[in-house]
Amino acid sequence: MTLTQMVASARTAATALTHQKVAHLLTEQVMADRDLLLRFDPGLGTTRLAWLTAPAVEATAASVKTAIEKLKFLRAMDAHVLDMSMLAAERRRFTSYR
Description:
Elements: H1 2-22, H2 28-36, E1 40-41, E2 46-47, H3 48-53, H4 61-76, H5 89-93
Antiparallel strand pairs: 1-2
């Protein structure tokens, strides 16, 4: 039980530290864009987050086109300008602010 409590405490502290380090990046627009990723998109038949994280399964022109569409979507959100370098790479992997 003690190990479980230590892990939970460490995760809570890591989450608080992560938020402290990225809070200045979380503008209203960034938060709205992040929330948009979780909404179902009828045109895609899934959420934007699921669409963005789905890997290409074959090397086809359609796969390349989809990858370009994903890049355009992320660039329109200015995701490429969010500097997350203050976080350790492993921590960035577990954050919804990626």
